[in-house]
From TrEMBL:
The active site is at H199 (proton acceptor). Its EC number is 1.1.1.37. This is Malate dehydrogenase. Belongs to the LDH/MDH superfamily. MDH type 2 family.
Length: 345
């Protein structure tokens, strides 16, 4: 018991990690900042200094968030740096949550968002290149997340491409929760659900390799649900359209669940993952996916690195789904790079 206490005391002295959250005045950040500041992401003994970036008109709101963070009296929070200057925001940071972007409104297609948002990620890539630690871990949440992550990495060429990821964890969590509800088990009893491809309605939520513990026995989800047709059609569609369903109901895009997913993603990357998790990562051509797109694969994380899970069977049905979402990502990439060049930012 004594030994444990000494170890905790030493950990507590460790250098704070600097973490930037962009879109700090927004609704996702409002939930996410609390999770980061109380130790959910970087560990219960790891102090943090939060950098909060938003645009100049939102600085008043950001000041309110700074006050609330202070009022939470969180022992791990060692400092807060509110700013509208990307060079200040990214200075010496260890981890970045790139949340700030224009959110999708009801009836708005993701493609409409692309032109509005790629410029933001070009500027932030350049600021990362100038200021951040070379080991920075970047998670892009702002949509279109996969393509924004690609754009950002292109403008930070001295930082490894593997350090830029996009969030599909919300889709994974949605799919996992849906299967758990259907089987009347806890989410913790469902593992290895995969999201392939883009964080969009072309994503492929795949439970062909997923397992569930039902009545104490571990079985495949397919065996447990006993309805492959449902898993291939209605289930896939439900997860693909879940974001739109939340917008229709809330008149705002997912926020609490998006923050939880961002926290899960960075935590697994930083501290290691127990099971497969899905992350948008730079494609190396695995599973016949074209290179140079940020594509969601099943990965395992350890030593602060992700590795794509290899050797999974891709049948004709899955091949079709992977190809559709890959095609969309290639189109997005071409449009995004054209916008970056035209805008001369
Ligand atoms: N990947 C996912 O699973 C997922 C899930 C939900 C939402 N999202 C996306 O996350 C993003 C944020 O959503 P939200 O609900 O928090 O939106 P929000 O509108 O509440 O907040 C966005 C914030 O970003 C700020 N911002 C805009 N441009 C900025 C810039 N250049 N630098 C810094 N900050 C900037 C805005 O001022 C605003 O405060 C949206 O793009 C949304 O579509 C992604």
């Amino acid at each position: 018991m004594k030994l444990v206490m000494i170890e905790l005391a030493i950990d507590f002295q460790s250098e704070p990690v600097r973490v930037v959250v962009t879109g700090a005045a927004g609704q996702i950040a409002y939930s996410l900042l609390y999770m980061v500041a109380k130790g959910d992401v970087f560990g219960p003994n790891q102090p943090v200094i939060l950098h909060l970036l938003d645009i100049p008109p939102m600085m008043g709101v950001v000041q309110g968030v700074v006050m609330e963070l202070s009022d939470c009296a969180l022992p791990l929070l060692r400092g807060v740096v509110p700013t509208a200057d990307p060079d200040v925001a990214f200075k010496d940071v260890d981890a970045a949550f790139l949340v700030g972007a224009m959110p999708r409104k009801e009836g708005m297609e993701r493609k409409d968002l692309l032109a509005a948002n790629v410029g933001i990620f070009k500027v932030q890539g350049q600021a990362i290149e100038r200021n951040a630690k070379r080991t920075i871990k970047v998670l892009v949440v702002g949509n279109p997340a996969n393509t924004n992550a690609l754009v950002c990495s292109k403008y930070a060429p001295s930082i490894p491409k593997e350090n830029f990821t996009a969030m599909t964890r919300l889709d994974q969590n949605r799919a996992t929760a849906h299967i758990a509800e259907r089987l009347n088990v806890s989410c913790a009893d469902v593992s290895n659900v995969i999201i392939w491809g883009n964080h969009s309605s072309t994503q492929f939520p795949d439970v062909r390799h997923a397992n569930a513990t039902v009545n104490g026995a571990k079985v495949s989800v397919s065996e447990a649900i006993k309805d492959d047709e449902y898993l291939k059609t209605q289930f896939v569609e439900k997860i693909q359209k879940r974001g739109a369903a939340v917008i229709a109901a809330r008149k705002l895009s997912s926020a609490m669940s998006a923050a939880k997913a961002a926290s899960d993603h960075m935590k697994d990357w930083w501290q290691g993952s127990a099971n497969w998790v899905s992350m948008g990562v730079i494609s190396d051509g695995s599973y016949g996916v074209p290179a140079d797109v940020v594509f969601s694969f099943p990965v395992i994380c350890s030593d602060k690195k992700w590795t794509i899970v290899q050797g999974l069977e891709i049948d004709e049905y899955a091949r079709g789904k992977l190809d559709i979402t890959a095609k969309e990502l290639i189109e997005e990439r071409e449009e995004a790079l054209a916008v970056c060049q035209d805008s001369n930012l």
